[in-house]
Design a protein that fits this description.
945 residues, mainly alpha, eight-stranded parallel barrel, 42 helices, 6% strand, globular
């Protein structure tokens, strides 16, 4: 018979409980080493569950324990962040150290003014702030982490973090696009301040070296950009008015920055008047802008459009007048300190125009194809090899006769094709907000040159062909293979070649998220580097060495999505290896590097002034590194490299197509993680609504990777390496020891191993195996427990997951054993992280024990007790509790006691307070604890998704 647990007062301190449980972990691991048939993680979960049964561990005890574990995880993460950006190493955050790297040492003979100007005034790197659903921690915790990481002493960091250790590790309950934009703006503001400090250091050095000419310099070696509010890939919830409003807010921040930094010098008065007038005009435009989430009527859109047009001249639409006023102020400044402040301000405006950060817009290739199809009057798929040539011929013919059409807000409001609407939005931003710099137009899932030419036609059609940087994203396995052919097909078009010559740059984007989960993260870096080589060769072959090559590496903040875990220095070198950069120099290619900083994890590196300065200095050290890289043997063994990384890719491809892998990711994995951003969990289509997920390919890369983190095995950073290495184990060991490039890449797998444990993964898999539960039922001694376990086993048997999951586990184990044989120094999961997994499994099991006591009920809306129980096994707890509240109301029937003029008919007269108190409320509390553990695991791993 079911008897709810009592909840006595906590009986011990969190520290004592933690010591007991970590001792339990160590004991279970020792026993498992002697008994290979024992799973230590299930042993831990069972022991904790039994202690909870006996009242020895209560929910209140767990609250205290979680506070202690949370504080330790935050302390270690703050220390890692401080070390990652190099605050305690070398120059730390002293940006004066950048001077000899950028403009040369005054005593080295590298003091030619024009040579220094060329190095200073061409942007070499852009830090791009991206959003995605990766806001996995509360804003308050993120700010505290950044502030703690900026403190040099451990005890100071502990004091700062103790104030937030009692807060939840789960993300903020509601995360809107406005929240994401505000967090990005917070990071960008610190980044802009760091760039100002960098430029000030460079200008002070130039003043000492060239006292008569230093104020001519406009340094901008590093710039900032953002796509928050401009990324419409896979989502339909961002209106064009939202994008315009965010651009106006960015413009307002830039004008506020100008006004705040202007020196109190009479020469600056014209600049102040111009900036104040522009800022006031922008604020008037913002006052009538539709708010986020609105579906504004035509009258609201009309009023907003008129404000943009009426205030256009006062608001300024490009930075030219402001820069001219700053030039005059520099010339007329009363002293060198005022002149220096004005030069720093001018540099920031020259680099970013009338924006706080340069805008990036993003959508996918299908949206571009759909927008052009109506003008092309051609059916079929341009990716289909049988139709590739005919589509290329047709789009070139369309480009032969393209004419620009006027764009107005009425046409924009009426447009339904998403790519055309976005291109028109860009045209209006360039016309009415800021047209200083070309705008980045990123196209996800580009797999044919037709996509680039179609985007060019759209840009020319709307009159902005010279103001849009059309950028293919190469990320999927097929795109990495076909990327060179995409560029080749585009370069065969005279329209594309002329476009590149006019624009002066070719921009390509490489993605590490999807590539990592499809071909394996370590293999992805090889295929991406190979594609970079081929694109450089194409530029030389097509006489495009006078065109700048911009390489934008887009990645997350976890190893599974391309962020190197060792340090920011290693991260930058992993993305842009020295050998690749040397090849570009030898080919006389001008290259600009760009890299993403994503969500709350990425923004931490710009979370305070010291962190931002250190981050910018590491970037400068990377971009302006002196000397040539040492020879690397991985490039001398192309056969080994190709076969090794091809092997990893093949193994990952087989894994992704394994039905057990989809079952592992999709059963209760999605329910382990909270929503971490404004973007829909499932991709949306232009037709609206989420797309069904039936294969890992249809799941977004971020939750895919987050689920692997939560299940304790980072397959996309580990799997396939063992089998590939076993084919040439001696050469594999040599490469690890002698190749900097290969060793740096393999260290990702080592780091993944330190957060992975096959025992943990097996515990989750066995939890879904009815056989394990029946074995447990045989040994159950608690009253009523055997019946609970048998009911769970029966429900799991209906799901029929175990055979697929067992085969999957065998596949993963086989490869991991081979990896251990060639790399015995792999890391292992910490005791604390293992304990978190054991705790969460105990909580999941207790939810299931309660779930089997839900009373039977008549089917309601197609929901039966059986289907509800199966959903609870998948941890779809929130939705199930909502249904249970309707099925078993806690409030009486409001019609009771009312006279309806007829004899009363039968109705339910009872309420279900007991079920809510003993079943539904405990399930809700336990599930909140499950999600809380997920948040702590995120801190242990170091990033979300």
């Amino acid at each position: 018979m079911y008897r709810p647990d009592e909840s006595p007062d906590p009986h011990r301190s969190p520290e004592t409980l933690e010591d007991d449980l970590t001792g339990l972990v160590e004991q279970a691991r020792q026993q498992a080493s002697e008994d290979p048939f024992r799973n230590p993680v299930l042993t831990i979960a069972l022991a904790i569950s039994r202690r909870m049964d006996r009242g020895e561990v209560t929910e209140a005890d767990l609250d205290g324990l979680f506070g202690s574990l949370r504080l330790q995880a935050l302390e270690e993460r703050a220390a890692r962040l401080r070390g990652y950006v190099g605050l305690d190493e070398g120059a730390g955050d002293d940006l004066d150290a950048a001077v000899p790297l950028v403009i040369g040492d005054a005593h080295s003979g590298e003091s030619d003014f024009e040579a220094a100007r060329a190095r200073l005034e061409r942007p070499r790197f852009a830090a791009v702030f991206t959003a995605h659903p990766t806001f996995g921690m509360p804003k308050a915790v993120a700010h505290a982490l950044a502030e703690a990481a900026s403190l040099p002493r451990a005890e100071e960091r502990r004091g700062r973090l103790a104030a937030v250790a009692g807060l939840s590790s789960r993300p903020d309950p509601v995360i809107t696009l406005n929240d994401e934009f505000a967090q990005a703006r917070h990071a960008v503001q610190h980044g802009r301040a760091a760039l100002d400090a960098l430029n000030a250091a460079l200008l002070r050095a130039a003043r000492a070296r060239w006292p008569d000419r230093w104020s001519e310099l406009v340094p901008q070696p590093v710039v900032l950009a953002s796509w928050v509010g401009c990324d419409t890939d896979g989502r339909t919830d961002i209106g064009w008015w939202d994008t315009l409003r965010y651009r106006l807010e960015s413009k307002c921040a830039q004008l506020d920055r100008v006004l705040a930094q202007l020196p109190d010098d009479p020469a600056a008065a014209p600049v102040r008047r111009l900036a104040e007038s522009a800022r006031d005009a922008v604020e008037r435009q913002l006052a009538v802008a539709p708010k986020l989430g609105d579906q504004p009527g035509l009258d609201v859109v009309h009023r907003f459009a008129l404000a943009l047009i009426i205030e256009r001249e006062r608001a300024q639409t490009e930075a030219g007048p402001l820069l001219a006023a700053l030039d005059a102020a520099v010339a007329g400044a009363a002293d060198d300190e005022a002149r220096l402040a004005l030069c720093v301000l001018r540099a920031g405006c020259a680099a970013h125009g009338l924006q706080n950060g340069l805008p990036h817009f993003r959508l996918n290739a299908t949206q571009v194809h759909n927008a052009v199809r109506r003008s092309l009057d051609r059916d079929g798929d341009p990716i289909d090899p049988a139709q590739r040539r005919s589509h290329l011929t047709a789009i070139n013919a369309l480009l032969d006769h393209v004419t620009a059409v006027p764009v107005d807000f009425g046409a924009l409001a009426a447009e339904r094709a998403s790519a055309a609407r976005l291109m028109m939005t860009i045209a209006q931003i360039l016309k009415h907000v800021d047209g200083t710099h070309p705008v980045r137009f990123l196209i996800a899932e580009t797999e044919t040159g037709y996509t680039l030419l179609a985007a060019l036609w759209l840009a020319e059609h709307f009159g902005i062909g010279d103001k849009v940087e059309i950028t293919p994203l190469f990320e999927t396995a097929s795109a990495l293979e076909q990327g060179v052919h995409v560029i080749e097909d585009a370069l065969r078009s005279p329209h594309w070649r002329r476009y590149l010559k006019r624009l002066g740059r070719l921009v390509v984007q490489f993605g590490y998220s999807d590539s990592g989960r499809y071909v394996g993260q370590i293999a992805a870096t090889f295929w991406i580097e190979r594609l970079r080589f081929r694109i450089g060769e194409l530029m030389v072959q097509n006489d495009l060495t006078d065109v700048e090559l911009v390489i934008f590496d887009t990645h997350g903040e976890s190893i599974g999505r391309g962020a190197h875990p060792a340090s920011l220095k290693d991260r930058l070198a992993y993305l842009a290896p020295g050998h690749a950069r040397r090849r570009n120099r030898e080919a006389n290619l001008k290259v600009r590097l760009e890299s993403s900083f994503q969500g709350s994890d990425g923004y931490l590196m710009f979370g305070t002034a010291p962190l931002a300065r250190a981050t910018v200095l590491r970037i400068v050290e990377h971009v302006f590194a002196a000397g040539e890289p040492a020879p690397d043997p991985i490039y001398d063994e192309p056969d080994f490299a190709t076969e090794f990384f091809t092997g990893v890719r093949q193994s990952m491809g087989t894994l992704v197509d394994d039905p057990g892998y989809a079952a592992l990711l999709g059963t209760f994995g999605p329910s382990l993680i909270d929503r971490t951003g404004s973007r829909p969990v499932a991709r949306q289509s232009d037709a609206g609504g989420p797309a069904a997920i039936t294969h890992p390919r249809q799941m977004r890369a971020i939750p895919n990777n987050a689920i692997l983190q939560q299940l304790g095995y980072l397959a996309n950073s580990l799997h396939g390496i063992g089998l590939a290495a076993a084919r040439a184990p001696d050469l594999f060991r040599d490469m690890r020891a002698q190749s900097e490039r290969f060793g740096r890449a393999f260290s990702l797998a080592q780091h993944a191993a330190s957060h992975s444990d096959l025992d943990v993964l097996r515990a989750y898999i066995d939890t879904l195996d009815p056989g394990m539960w029946l074995e447990r039922a045989r040994r159950a001694t608690r009253d009523g427990r055997r019946e609970e376990i048998v009911a769970i086993a029966a429900a799991l048997d209906r799901l029929d997951l175990a055979p697929r999951l067992r085969r999957l586990f065998g596949r993963l184990t086989h490869d991991h054993l081979m990896l251990q044989s060639v790399a015995p120094d792999l890391g292992s999961m910490s005791v604390r992280l293992t304990l978190l997994h054991g705790l969460r499994l105990a909580l999941v099991h207790r939810i299931w024990f309660l779930a089997v006591h839900i009373p039977d009920f008549r089917p309601q809306g197609g929901v039966t007790r059986e289907s509800l129980l199966e959903r609870l096994l998948r941890l779809d707890v929130a939705a199930c509790l909502t249904m249970l509240e309707e099925i078993f109301p806690v409030t009486p029937d409001p019609t009771l006691g009312l006279n309806f003029g007829e004899p009363p008919g039968p109705r339910g007269v009872g309420t279900y307070e007991a079920e809510h108190r003993t079943l539904f409320a405990p399930i809700g509390r336990l599930f909140a604890l499950v999600r809380e553990v997920s948040g702590m695991i995120q801190h242990e791993v170091g990033a979300f998704g």
